[in-house]
UniProtKB/TrEMBL annotation:
GO terms for molecular function: DNA binding; sigma factor activity. Residues 1-47 form the RNA polymerase sigma factor 70 region 4 type domain. It holds the Pfam family Sigma70_r4_2. Residues 58-84 are annotated as: Disordered. The keyword Transferase does not apply. SUPFAM superfamilies: Sigma3 and sigma4 domains of RNA polymerase sigma factors. This is ECF RNA polymerase sigma factor SigR. CDD domains: Sigma70_r4. The gene is sigR. GO terms for biological process: DNA-templated transcription initiation.
Amino acid sequence: MERLPDKLRCALHLFYVEGYGIAEVAGILGCTEAAARTRLHRGRKKLAAELARLEAAGSAPASAHSTAADSNDPTDPAMQQTAY
């Protein structure tokens, strides 16, 4: 992840590691929710590409590959659960 640009890395960290929602990530980063979703999408794509490159070079285990392109994208508003 250290190879990702700061904007993308921060969005991914806040969402996946810290557990913030899209609105919270946007607030912390000072951007719109659409921009936060875009940063997450681009970050996942870049991370998946880097993992694929490392796997092809034999530097990363196949199990380390993320399903970033999965249709169950947690940043997709249709996939987000409503808190009750």
